[in-house]
Write a structure and sequence with these properties.
This protein has one domain: Four Helix Bundle (Hemerythrin (Met), subunit A) (Up-down Bundle), CATH 1.20.120.450. Helices cover 57% and strands 5% of the residues. The chain contains 7 helices and 2 strands. A two-stranded antiparallel sheet has the order 1-2. A hairpin with a 2-residue loop joins strand 1 and strand 2. The longest helix has 25 residues.
Length: 148
């Protein structure tokens, strides 16, 4: 993402594919929600940091929601990168204090229960999947998608 310009970030692909901006905001916000809200019972960094105002995005796109507004909007990538750094710092703080026995603790998620370990794996796998989408979107725009 370090070499993604505002133009690449906001490019609207044909069909029903999402923009990089929608995908990136979604996956960073998912980590924020998983780590802060689900695992720790805290408000998200999005909420506490005033990121709606800082980014101009009222609500990050969620699973099963309509993300099409991102195809019409031009979003500056830098505030989103700043949000990502705030989320990553909060995640690092949480992981640094995570005790091994905490991994088995059950939390409520998506109408059921999952262990903390499962939620961490879900967060990592979701990020990996969405970064693959972003790499493909960069590639079809002529930018370098994945490392060689």
């Amino acid at each position: 993402m370090n070499d993604v310009t505002d133009e690449l970030f906001n490019w609207a692909p044909p069909g029903t594919a999402n923009t990089i901006s929608a995908t990136f905001v979604h996956f960073v916000n998912a980590e924020d929600s998983f780590i802060q809200k689900v695992l720790q019972g805290k408000p998200t960094i999005w909420e506490t940091g005033g990121w709606a105002e800082k980014t101009g995005i009222t609500k990050p796109p969620g699973k099963g929601e309509d993300w099409s507004e991102f195809k019409q909007r031009k979003i500056n990538i830098q505030p989103i990168q700043n949000y990502k750094m705030a989320v990553w710092a909060a995640t690092d703080t949480y992981l640094a204090t995570l005790a091994e026995d905490e991994l088995d603790r059950m939390v409520q998620f998506a109408g059921g229960e999952r262990s903390v370990a499962e939620m961490l794996m879900l967060s990592a796998s979701q990020s990996h999947s969405h970064l693959g989408e972003i790499a493909a979107l960069k590639g079809i725009q002529g930018a370098k998608g994945l490392p060689v």
